[in-house]
Design brief:
The chain is 34% helix and 23% strand. It folds into two domains: 78 residues, ATPase, nucleotide binding domain (Nucleotidyltransferase, domain 5); 116 residues, Nucleotidyltransferase, domain 5 (2-Layer Sandwich). Strand 9 and strand 10 form a beta hairpin. Keywords: ATP-binding, Coenzyme A biosynthesis, Cytoplasm, Kinase, Nucleotide-binding, Potassium, Transferase.
Length: 259
């Protein structure tokens, strides 16, 4: 049995994994102290032989995670690092270590899921776009603020612009709250569509559009092209590592949090 952990910017996601497949657990909000949250989350978990971690979290959170895994399972976690090539995926960056490990592992899952070229749009704290050829070659990507982060930045930098939970997303807003929410979400949708169009033109072939992240279901209806939503791509990519698609990752924690 393997423990797989995706330590992100705002949440920790985890799953148990064995020959029967992936069994995701309840995500943990790490704005609260992590140790007691994990003790509760893993209270009924079975023994595990290996723990694989993808982390873009702060060093303090990584240290708490290591302590929790040692205390509960009695093993040392292995922190996966971005590599130039692994599991059929070849990274576009001249310095592969600068590609966030969460993006790297998600691309590995994407390559296993989609038989041809694909664009992955992950909507979390940031809006992260990556293009992957059908041969597993990473073509590059873009990073922008997520719609929520756009809205927070706008509200923080203006004195009289306001937002409301009840605000709608419309093409032509007739009040400020709707205008703010609509502008941020439609800007994100437009960037995704433009990126997908550019990749499709470059490859001169049909390109699948895959959405991931906590806000994927909100973005999908705003897009003017078909898109599929895939959950837990980082965990699914870690499962590929656990299944032995490459040699075991380093057991050392690495500075792979740059996106």
């Amino acid at each position: 049995m393997n423990l797989l952990v995706d330590l992100g910017n705002t949440r920790l996601k985890w799953a148990l994994h064995d020959a029967q497949g992936l069994r995701p657990g309840t995500p943990v909000d790490h704005s609260r102290p992590l140790l007691p949250e994990l003790e509760l989350a893993w209270r009924d978990a079975p023994a595990v032989a290996r723990a694989l971690v993808s982390s873009v979290g702060r060093p303090r959170l990584e240290a708490e995670l290591v302590q929790a895994i040692r205390a509960r399972f009695g093993i040392e976690p292995q922190f996966v690092a971005t590599q130039a090539q692994a599991c059929g995926v070849r990274v576009a960056y001249a310095r592969p270590e600068k590609l966030g490990v969460d993006r790297f592992v998600a691309l590995i899952a994407l390559h296993a899921l989609v038989p041809g070229p694909a664009v992955l749009a992950s909507v979390g704290t940031a809006l992260v776009l990556d293009a992957l050829g059908g041969d597993g070659v990473h073509l590059g990507g873009l990073i922008a603020p997520s719609p929520l982060l756009m809205q927070q930045a706008l509200l923080g930098a203006t004195a009289r612009v306001t937002a409301a939970e009840s605000a709608r997303i419309v093409e032509l807003a007739d009040d400020t709250e709707d205008a703010v929410r609509s502008g941020c979400w439609l800007a994100a949708a437009a960037l995704v569509e433009r990126f997908h169009l550019q990749v499709s033109s470059r490859l001169a072939a049909p390109v699948a559009l895959v959405l991931a992240g906590g806000a994927a279901s909100e973005l999908a209806p705003l897009l003017g092209r078909p898109a599929r939503i895939e959950a837990d791509l980082v965990l699914r990519g870690l499962a590929r590592f656990a299944d032995g698609c490459i040699a075991s990752p380093s057991s050392e924690s690495v500075e792979s949090g740059n996106s």
